[in-house]
Amino acid sequence: MRIALLAHLRHPVAAPFAGGMEAHSWSLAEGLMARGHDVVLFAAGDSDPRLAVDPVIPVHHEASFPGLEHRGDPGLVAHVDAGYAAACDRIAAGGFDVLHNNSLSRLPLERRRTAAMPTVTSLHVPPYDALRWFVQESRAPTHRITVTSRAQAKVWWPEAVPPDVSVLHNGVDPAAWPYRDTGDGSAVWSGRMAPIKGAHRAIAAARAAGLPLTLYGPIEDPEYWDTRIAPALGGAIRYGGHLSGDALARAIGRASVFLFTPCWDEPFGLVAIEAMACGVPVAGLAMGAAEEVVGEAGCLAPLGDEPALARAIGAALAIPRAVPHARVLRLFTRDLWLDRCEALYTQARAAS
Fold first, then answer.
1. Which structural domain range is residue 343 located in?
2. CB neighbour burial string for 193-221, b if at least 16 within 10 angstroms, e if fewer
3. Do 18 and 166 fall within a single domain?
4. Same domain, 39 and 94
5. Does residue 30 sit in the same domain as residue 142?
6. What is the DSSP letter of 229?
7. Which of 131, 159, 189, 242 would you label with 16, given CA atoms 20 to 30 Å apart?
8. 274 and 143, same structural domain?
């Protein structure tokens, strides 16, 4: 198939990934290409040059409009809308069999576009006002909508999930996150340094449990970093930087427990299954899809109950490392994910 992939534009689709959406788009493009599909990634122009990138905007918009995501800045909105509108027109005229829309833009959801182009839209965020109505109105036979978890589906459609909406769990390549049968007794955390990801809660829990903790990830919110994270570093709490690829997999795989601390309704939690693939059990907060993703591979505590999270660390340490690894192989591999994507593409095309 000739497949167009439309990505979010805040960050480049390139390692080291700024977040799960960037990792998702890169892995999807690379995986589909490996299966023989003709794939064009419509993304920021500074995305991975090893992929066939058609620039939606010249560079990711966090570089040109820093700190303005979700602020309603008219300049940023006009910049992004113009890029997406032109990209959608190029996709419509580009001889593609299907569009996989991973953006947060309303423009690919317009009925005139989904009627002309078989489309799969994957929702990676909880519903918010700028997107909710357009998603609800975009349903059509040629448009398949996916969410990353059952928990996310219930947030988007609390009364009843429509039959044309399905759960498409994210997946990872186990070879990229190699299994290790022992840990070094430490805790590890990975994610964006932003309040909703809860690194400060991981620090408090690790201290209460008496475990050394290393944090990895990009500093997305400098104020949060300066006021909540940097002052807490020292001794057994350290920051390991923003790593990518093999370096991050090795760092996570060395640990004995992964701390997963979302402070919002986490739609999935890609970082959790990356750790689980390495054999690292999870201690975390029962927010959003955490229970659905972690299952028997970890122990969860309520948000705000720091003693319970510290106890969850102790319980997770007792879980054999083969358990989280096996859960990923059963439910969350990239091959399973790509199989589902290909099936959705076929369904959308058959309805056109």
1. 2-171+333-350
2. bbbbbbbbbbbbbbbebebbbbbbbbbbb
3. yes
4. yes
5. yes
6. I
7. 131
8. no
Alpha-carbon Rg of the chain, whole angstroms? 20
Q: How many residues does the chain have?
A: 352
The DSSP annotation for 187-228 comes to EEEES-SSGGG-HHHHHHHHHHHT--EEEES----HHHIIII
How far is the C-alpha of 233 from the C-alpha of 64, rounded, in Å? 31
* pLDDT digit string (tens) for the chain, length 352 residues: 999 999 999 999 999 998 889 999 999 999 999 999 999 999 999 999 999 999 999 999 998 888 877 777 899 999 999 999 999 999 999 999 999 999 999 999 999 999 899 999 999 998 987 788 899 888 888 999 999 999 999 999 999 999 889 999 999 999 999 999 999 999 999 999 999 999 999 999 999 999 999 999 999 999 999 999 999 999 999 999 999 889 999 999 999 999 999 999 999 999 999 999 999 999 999 999 999 999 999 999 999 999 999 999 999 999 999 999 999 999 999 999 999 999 999 999 999 8
CA distance 285 to 199: 12
- The count of structural domains within the chain is 2
pTM greater than 0.85:
yes
Among candidates 71, 103, 81, which has minimal Cα distance to 221?
Answer: 71
Structure tokens that stand for 336 in this block: 């399973």
Burial label, 126 (beta-carbon count in 10 A; 0-12, 13-18, 19+): middle
Residues 66 and 146 in one domain: yes
Q: How far apart are CA 333 and CA 327, in angstroms?
A: 9
Secondary structure, 3-state, 47-105: CCCCCCEEEEECCCHHHHCCCCCCCCCHHHHHHHHHHHHHHHHHHHCCCCCEEEECCCC
Residues 236 and 135 in one domain: no
Q: What is the CATH number of the domain that holds 136?
A: 3.40.50.2000
Residue that the structure tokens 């593409």 belong to: 345
Q: Are residues 201 and 315 in the same domain?
A: yes
